[in-house]
Structures are given as C-alpha cells and as structure tokens.
Amino acid sequence: MASASPNAAVASFFFLALLFRASFAQLSETYYDQTCPRLPNIVRASVKKAIQSDIRAGAKLIRLHFHDCFVNGCDGSVLLEDAPGIVSELNSPGNQGIQGLEIVDAIKADVEKECPGIVSCADILAQASKDSVDVQGGPSWRVLYGRRDSRIANKTGADSGLASPFETLDELKAKFAAVGLDTTDLVALSGAHTFGRSRCVFFSHRFANFNGTGSPDPSLDANYRRFLEGVCAAGANTRANFDPVTPDVFDKNYYTNLQVGKGLLQSDQELFSTPGADTIAIVNSFAAREGTFFKEFRKSMINMGNIKPLTGWRGEIRRNCRRVNSNSGLFGGEGEGEGEGHGVM
C-alpha cells in the first residue's frame, strides 16, 4: 500500500494535536479519581473544621472563589501575594478587606499530606466553596476539576473587573456579561450574600446624601437604616450581617430581604429596586421557593467555575497557594519555569 503523503501526515499530526489539546480543555468530575480520590472528603473535613472555629469561614472562601474567577478566570491568581514580578490582586480596591488566605493554606496543607503536588489551589477554591455552602444549609453539586494555577496576577483586571457594592444594576450586568454570565447568574450568585458580613464602609453611604440627593437611599427600609446606623456608630470597619434574620445559614432569605428593602449593599438592593428591571421577577421567584434558588445557584456556580480555566500544560500546580513555584516545569514538576501558557511537551 502506498505511504501517506507529506500533506496527509502533517494534517494527521495537527488533528492529533488538536485532540490532545481538547482532552485538556474540559473540566471533569473524575479528574482526580486516580491521583487524589479522597480529595472531596479531605477538603470538606477541613472546611467544616474552619467553620467550627470561625463562622465566617465559608463566606470568606466563596468570596475568594468569586474574586478569583472574575479576573483572568478561575486560576488561583487572587491568592498570589506581592513578589518580584507580581503585583497582587489583593491590592485592588475590589479586594479590600478580603480574608481567608490562612484557611486556604490549611486546606492546601491537608490535601498535600495525602496528594502532594497533585491538586491546584484553583480547584481547592472550587471544592471549598461548594462545601462552604452545603455545610451551612445550602445546595450541593458535583464539582468539576482540572484547573491549574496561574503564574501571574492581574491587579489591573481586578481593579476594573470586580463588582463593586456601589454599582448600579447596569454596571453589575456589564461585569457579569464580560465573563460570560447572564442576568440569572447575577441574581443567583448574589444570593451568596445570604451569609457572611460586610464592613460599614461599603454601605454607610446609603444613610444620608445618597448620590448627592441630600437624603438617605430611598430603597433602604427606614427602620433597617436606623438599626444599621447604630451598628456603624462603632466605626467604618464594624461588620454587619448580610442577612439580619439567619446570618449564618445559606437559605433564600437574601431575596425576601430584598423584597422589604433590607438588602445590605446598594448592589444587593439594585436587583429588586431598579424600576422595570428584569431581575425583579427572578428575585421574586427565588424568594417564593428556596428550591428554585438552590437549583439556579448550583448551575451558576458551575458556570462561574468554568470561566477560562488554565488546563493541560498551562500554568502549574502551586506548592504554596500564595507563591508561584520557584521551579516550574511541565505539570508543576521540577525544572526551569516557563512563561504563562508556554510549557514544553
């Protein structure tokens, strides 16, 4: 039989290369089945331990995952601290006061004991966020794995891409759309504010002269405003519960609070109080039935976790979630470090 032509051989090579690349492009539930099969159990135990000692731990972890995925995709870049060649995203105004790195360190240490050099910090954030939600009463879902960790940070991207508590609905929609998330994702993911706390500096502008009107934010319930003013009398860094009813439980009360003008942040209340907004009907549906909210939250968390992950030979598996590896070869092994996305096969 005649041998294949050079052109056919080249075409075959590129076809195989595309298949190889595609095999790494998809995240998978089974990614660690052979290399770290107990990963979900390890992370869940570590998250439960953290919540037992700090009731805010779950909210801290899910916020880190959100802020990671909205800048350069879900690549662990939010965890990187300042270092030569790296200006940390933690310096961004959008990450002001963000906490929980020590919790991630503890989870990473537990994972490394059993599966050294296998699991990325980005995947740990995804798994820990799921556990943070269902441990505190929320929905569960099957986490997809296979993300790798970035060797760079993007403070400029954090400055422009992270949602702000001072933004209008249109501004929030634009930031979600920029990363491929729609209006339902916006409303569902905002429901993570059903637990956790916020500092007064992020919502006290609603108390008086809101947007230069000389009056308080009209969408903020007057009695709730007076309560918050009392809380914030202790100082701008004082924290208030996002949900004044069940602050440590993941439930649908975030949405019932919006219906009565008790959204803590301006960006929260915008979902319900913006005249004619399409988000109002979504808020009402989530407030009416917790199962509807949970179903959409699961889907939206998976959607968010799929934002531009580094896979295959791109990035690395960081040994320390706050630092890039000093030597970064293919798949996080030893060797000279390559630039982002340029590992050698």
Automatic annotation (TrEMBL):
UniProt keyword annotations, A-Z: Calcium, Disulfide bond, Glycoprotein, Heme, Hydrogen peroxide, Iron, Metal-binding, Oxidoreductase, Peroxidase, Secreted, Signal
GO BP, one annotated term: response to oxidative stress
Coiled-coil ranges (or none): none
InterPro entries linked: Haem_peroxidase (IPR002016), Haem_peroxidase_sf (IPR010255), Peroxidase_pln (IPR000823), Peroxidases_AS (IPR019794), Peroxidases_heam-ligand_BS (IPR019793), Secretory_peroxidase (IPR033905)
Disulphide connectivity of cysteines: C36-C115, C69-C74, C121-C321, C200-C232
Catalytic activity: 2 a phenolic donor + H2O2 = 2 a phenolic radical donor + 2 H2O
Residues forming the catalytic site: H67 (proton acceptor)
Major location (coarse): secreted
Claim: Oxidoreductase is one of the keywords in the record: yes
Family to which this protein belongs: Belongs to the peroxidase family. Ascorbate peroxidase subfamily.
Protein name from the UniProt record: Peroxidase
